[in-house]
What does this fold into?
Amino acid sequence: MAQKIKSEYQSITEAYDLDQFKARAYQVVEILANYLANVENEPVLKWQDPEVAVASWSRDFTKTTPEITTIVKKFIDESNHLHSPCYAGHQVSTPLPTAALAEFVYSFLNSPSSIYEMGPASYGIEQAIVRWLAEQLYINTETAGAVLTSGGSLGNLTALLTARQVNAGYDVWQEGVKDDLAIIVSDQNHYSISRAAHIMGLGSKSIYTVATDEEFKLKSSELEAVYQQSQKDGKKVIAVCASACSTSTGSYDDLNAIADFCETHDLWLHVDGAHGASVALSEKYKHLIEGINRADSVVWDAHKMMAIPSLITAVIYKNRAESYSTFSQEASYLLDHNSIERDTCNRTVECTKPNMAMKLYLSLAIHGEEFFSDYIDYTHDLATRFAELIKRQDDFELAIEPESNIVCFRYLEKELNSVELNQLQKDLREKIIRSGDFYLVKTDLRGKTYLRVSLMNPLTKIDHLEELLCLIRKAA
Ligand SMILES: Cc1ncc(COP(=O)(O)O)c(C=O)c1O
It folds into this structure.
């Protein structure tokens, strides 16, 4: 059957040439499959200085090319290869191929999930996904409410905006922020929590920090003293923020202890589960988030520990009604009080919001819940095995026993002082990532610099991590 779309403009006719579209699509899928098949033999990252990257991509767009493969291959070649088994860097997922297909389909249709009429299927899929996510956390889905938003940082901001409106004791939306609101955080909370507080008009003096213990978990025994200090200072605490887990070391706060404290003082508990809420999917590791169902708000990123490409963040509220108080706006061209339930833009910063749920929905439908629990078990078990391996080496030191898939460790050289040892870890990382042999990151913990891996890739094996230790020794 003929598949032709014609316009009086030649350029439009060409842009909608479906034979060309199909040919390019097949070529792209072929290239991606080849990339995945051979990724282990390629450098993780071909280091380029930023100005070289900018120069190499500048282009005269008055001249066109019918050919898609050169650009796609160059893009792959010059990207950080998250599918490489030697990628163990920041907490960005190694995407499932199926999830990428969902992105492709969504991008083709471009039907957002924030305004029901613009994407009924997108809305339906989003509701199915947020409900499923809430169920995994044992949050009562009859009374809970949830929305998807663009990333953990925006998720934390959204949840804290709700907490501010619900708990300020006055209508912040109408009156603005007075100098009396505060939040309680731990010294290991992700920076986006403090950034959210600053965006909301709380200065640094209104962010009360609770110290963490030797495992970098919030010391719940010190919450009371910190809270009392905030009361002496005349503050109204709008939220206590817990980590499940923390970014640097992957440490899980004791959520039940923090929830007990919050219940005693009638305080809002926000749990940043951007990275770690996914352990809910594993029988073996779900104990790490016991008590999460007691939180007033939870943030959970599927683009971290669910092998789904960025971005897809759920903000889950224990009490659905509260999620509607975050924003109160009039915009007759779009917002309508009669459709507040079905138009999720009433509850998110985004106006147009992409369909983020499709990539998780399709992956769950095709691979099942079992894939996700295996993924958590495998990556977390691998971290434990890597930690055991490190402990058997005389010239390496582990920061703490890993609870999650994040491991912090460092290379030791006896004759170096602490400043030199810190510098050595940075130099080693730099050398290794520039070699393309491995990609890892670093973090500072109480004055000591550590190398840090997040084992995101289910294709990474213990052999690759053994090889990493050899590479570090060689680089040293
Ligand atoms: C615990 C935690 N919260 C929030 C974030 C921010 O998430 P995003 O990068 O999606 O904004 C991160 C990122 O690593 C994180 O580890």
